[in-house]
Structure formats: C-alpha cells, structure tokens
Design brief:
With about 150 residues, this protein is an alpha+beta fold. The protein has a single domain, classed as Orthogonal Bundle (Arc Repressor Mutant, subunit A). Helices cover about 35% and strands about 15% of the residues. The protein has six helices and five strands. The strands form two sheets. A three-stranded antiparallel beta sheet has the order 1-3-2. Strands 4-5 form a two-stranded antiparallel sheet. The longest helix has 15 residues.
Length: about 150
C-alpha cells in the first residue's frame, strides 16, 4: 500500500493498513486540487508538458511538475522521452489511470447537479444527461443504493 501524503496539518504517521478505507486510498493517490483535472486532460490522449499547462488554466508549472511526478510514482501515468537535449517528455495514462474515467464522470455528474452553468455528462446519440447506476455483474442486474453492503467504501 502506498504511504499517505502528508499535509501541513497532518504529519505522515504509521497507520494500521486495515484501518485505511478504499476511499482514503484513492484520495491519497489522486485527491488534490489539480490531479483529477490533469487525469481528465490526459483521457483525450498523450500530452506534452506545455499542452497540459494550456489545458489547465491557472496551474503553475512547478505544481504541474510535482503532480506529474506524483502520478508517475503512483502508476497512474507514464512519461515517455521524445527529446534527450533538453529532456522533454509526453505523458499518457496507464491502464490504471484510464480506469479513473468512470470516477471522473461521476464527479462531473455530481458537480453539474450543483451548478446550473455546468454541462452534465450527456448521451452522445441524443444529448440527454445520463444517470449513473450501480450494476452487479454476477446477478446481471442494476443494484439500488439501499442494497450496497458498505456505502462508506471501507
């Protein structure tokens, strides 16, 4: 398991691995201000550093460098050199990084419900906002929230 990132108020303390929830683990890997927006930008395909800066208006270059290194360390992205002098890279999502697309869509759906100017996730064929549902592949049916075992994602 990856060590949690420490904030200024939270020193990295050894933790019992059994006490860390799945949600805590996910947030420790990708849960800061710019990381999810960075992953979203990379869902469209490989990007170079300056392209990412252009995509993420307001993001400082030093913060982008730090986030890219963190995501590479976590196995969410891979950096591929395209120039040796000076060293330059393009960045792309790994398969683990691509799996975040569903979570990002859910967050976008949640955000759109709270902001009338935000565009909801829409069905490409008709333009209707889509609804997220839980599905059980074993039972081959949709599952209601009341049927979910651990709603707190422990």
């Amino acid at each position: 398991m990856t060590q949690r990132l420490a904030s200024s108020q939270d020193e990295a303390m050894p933790r019992d691995p059994r006490s860390v929830s799945a949600l805590e683990e996910a947030v420790a890997r990708v849960g800061d201000r710019w990381t999810l927006l960075l992953v979203n930008s990379l869902l469209e395909g490989p990007r170079r550093f300056n392209e990412l800066l252009d995509d993420l208006d307001g993001l400082a270059p030093n913060v982008l460098s730090k986030r890219l290194r963190h995501l590479e360390h976590e196995g969410v992205i891979v950096a591929t050199a395209y120039s040796q002098r000076p060293p330059r890279f393009d960045y792309r999502l790994t398969s683990a990084g691509s799996e975040l697309a569903g979570a990002l869509r859910l967050l976008a759906h949640w955000g759109a419900a709270r902001d009338p100017d935000a565009v909801a996730v829409q069905h490409a064929a008709c333009g209707t906002p889509v609804e997220a549902r839980w599905y059980c592949p074993t039972c081959a049916r949709l599952v209601e929230v009341e049927e979910i075992d651990e709603l707190r994602f422990v």
